[in-house]
TrEMBL record:
<dbReference type="InterPro" id="IPR029063">
    <property type="entry name" value="SAM-dependent_MTases_sf"/>
</dbReference>
<dbReference type="GO" id="GO:0010420">
    <property type="term" value="F:polyprenyldihydroxybenzoate methyltransferase activity"/>
</dbReference>
<dbReference type="Pfam" id="PF08241">
    <property type="entry name" value="Methyltransf_11"/>
</dbReference>
<keyword id="KW-0949">S-adenosyl-L-methionine</keyword>
<keyword id="KW-0808">Transferase</keyword>
<keyword id="KW-0489">Methyltransferase</keyword>
<dbReference type="GO" id="GO:0032259">
    <property type="term" value="P:methylation"/>
</dbReference>
<feature type="domain" description="Methyltransferase type 11">
    <location>
        <begin position="61"/>
        <end position="150"/>
    </location>
</feature>
<keyword id="KW-0830">Ubiquinone</keyword>
<protein>
    <submittedName>
        <fullName>2-polyprenyl-6-hydroxyphenyl methylase / 3-demethylubiquinone-9 3-methyltransferase</fullName>
    </submittedName>
</protein>
<dbReference type="InterPro" id="IPR013216">
    <property type="entry name" value="Methyltransf_11"/>
</dbReference>
Amino acid sequence: MRDGAPVSTPPRVLPPNDPRQYDDLAGEWWRPDGAFAMLHWLARARAALVPPAPRPAALLVDLGCGAGLLAPHLAGKGYRHLGVDLTQSALDQAAAHGVTVVNADATAVPLADGCADVVAAGELLEHVPDWRRAVAEACRLLRPGGLLVLDTLNDTALCRLLAVRIGERLPTVPRGIHDPRLFVDARALVGECARHGVQLRLRGIRPELGGAVAWLLRRLRASRVGTGPTAGPGGTEPRIVPTWSTAVLYQGHGVRSG
């Protein structure tokens, strides 16, 4: 207190990729114009790789599920959706969207071997200090014939430039949300999955340029007048589309043998 005026507490400064950031950003998960808007776009693209459930009560394990953004895109596909995450504030929101939640580390999941028909690992591996252990867990959880679906950031100079040096300077991306030292080399990921019986197929992906630019401009205009945009024209959000290069953002899917 100074001269009778309250002293405001500055926001805490955390190291890059610190999980406590997700508690600080807990109110952003389900805002279409919020800090995690792109995760909504990616969740839709990831769910498009998931086929209808192959049997009654099939299980989909969603590693790094956050607040359950995958859930709306799985509706009607017939899976029991189980989400695993370290952040309890995110899991509380996932549970409110119909996800069965487990508070655990993606490198040590308290579930049985071969329990899952599908394992999804969306925007997870680039946040895990030991991504190889997370891959081993994802493959362990899959039954033979089960499907692994993932997306992550590549360990390239171009990715570090676009995702961190440029991306985290945009007003819609949280500063320090990534540690580029954890980005995942695409060839190494394919090799690691193969060691655990999953032949992973990769493709590069990116936001559709026109929709993403239009969304960003609406977001910037809205921030100046204190309102938020809807997801996009007619209520739609920018789409994630395939691209020829895996150098920045890439998607993978593969079936476990055996």
